[in-house]
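Milestone M4 deliverable, item 7.
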Amino acid sequence: MLIGVPREIKDQEYRVGLTPASTRELTSRGHQVLIQAGAGAAIGLPDEAYMAAGAAICGDAGEVFSRADMIVKVKEPQAAERAMLRPGQILYAYLHLAPDPGQTADLLRSRAVCIAYETITGPGGGLPLLAPMSEVAGRMSVQVAASNLEISKGGMGLLLAGVPGVAPAHVVVIGAGVAGTQALQVAIGMGARVTVLDKNVERLRQLDLIFGNRITTLYSSEHSIEASVLNADAVIGCVLVPGASAPKLVTRGMVARMKTGSVVVDVAIDQGGCFETSHATTHTEPTYLVDGVVHYCVANMPGAVARTSTFALNNATIGHAIALADKGWKRALAQDRHLKAGLNACEGRVTYKAVATALGYEYMPADQLLD
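Output delivered:
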């Protein structure tokens, strides 16, 4: 199979779909890999390293898309890239379709085979291809919050850790999954006062056993969210419903009553965000103000630490990339129910139920396309 890796074109996105090491895993199995020139240059992965791993280099994305049987990306294809997809071509990337009707419509028109990292499941449960980027985003969210609490960034001029005689900032984390757990770990390490909310009491019990009185755990309800948010200096939203739009747990009315100069970081923005006042931003213009509250809603947070993120992502994605290349998409999905869960759109049909429900499409189970 010929696997193509275009250079990412989303704003300030420097991650790359395959590292030279991942490329070697594929070429050593007899596959061809075509890399767009400069795809990894910004993070210290020069074209020469890919060539040494057996890849060919081409000058433009058009050649990658026209020749490749499978496109391996990081972020969802932008409009210009979606226009180059063709029927039967495999797209293997983060997609986040539920809050993105334009992308979904384009992918359906292309009749490509669209496999989303974020809905592939794991043998032990969870979402193993989403987890590494959730880890990065969760850890980043606290340093982002700390930075934006500075008065020059629009914040109230608060040091997250405080100093002797001055109380630390109060960080509220909504959602105790992968990203939320990483966020609270970093917040604790930086000396903040931390409250975490979740509906899974067993998960809260686990966190209490690990962190003890260094955190406050609360069952997530409208009342507890409101009370916590109004008392917070920084709120980090880490809510995830796999493949579906994130629920709007923090309302516009709550935001209006938050402390002036407080900060919200919406880690869930890829799935539409969990603050009613959220809209996606970029690394170029990462924040905006609503009622005096700083909002950070960058939709590709891990792109800011693209080298770390690329290696972490490749560790998780390369196994399925090999399976798709070795077996073709039909046999690979038929033999692996976890990989099959990643099929979101295929041959013009929506094959992930949460996406169909969110956007009003007819749902076709993936099994019906594997015969």
